[in-house]
Design brief:
Shape: elongated
Order of helices and strands: HHEHEEE
Strand content: 5-15%
Strand order of the largest sheet: 2-1-3-4
Low-confidence stretches: none
Number of strands: 4
Structural class: alpha+beta
Length: about 140
């Protein structure tokens, strides 16, 4: 009888601990922190590229129309063309950024899981998993 009471109390304490820790929320928060860091990294590389006298063309002018950013290992012809509409940032690699970050939950074999758009005079990057308004 006493053993059952101890097991019952331990079960209740275990359930309370798991609920308080909430591992799923912790994992989601960690992934979103990584996505935010990747967005900041990409935006910084783009800004530095522009400061050095380069420019970008054909960037959508709204967040809703944001284009997928291609993975840098993918040939530009595979990523941009009549059947796919991605944006190639491979010119940033390796001078401005070591590699294009990849969102493991959103990635395809062609795209990185991040999207690019222009907001006024600023070029922005967004992550669809963090921002529901990021592209279609």
């Amino acid at each position: 009888m006493e053993l059952l009471i101890v097991i019952g109390i331990l079960s209740i304490l275990f359930a309370i601990t798991i609920r308080a820790i909430n591992p799923l929320k912790q994992l989601t928060d960690a992934r979103n922190a990584k996505r935010h860091a990747s967005v900041v990294t990409l935006e910084s590389a783009v800004k530095q590229y522009i400061v050095d006298g380069h420019s970008f063309t054909n960037i959508p002018t709204s967040k809703a129309a944001a284009k997928d950013i291609c993975q840098h290992e993918v040939p530009a012809a595979t990523c941009t063309g009549p059947l796919v509409d991605g944006y190639d940032l491979s010119d940033l690699v390796p001078t401005y950024i070591v590699g294009i970050p990849v969102d493991d939950d959103e990635v395809t074999e062609t795209f990185s899981g991040y999207r690019i758009y222009q907001e006024g005079s600023l070029i922005r990057v967004c992550a669809p998993r963090m921002d529901g308004e990021c592209g279609s």
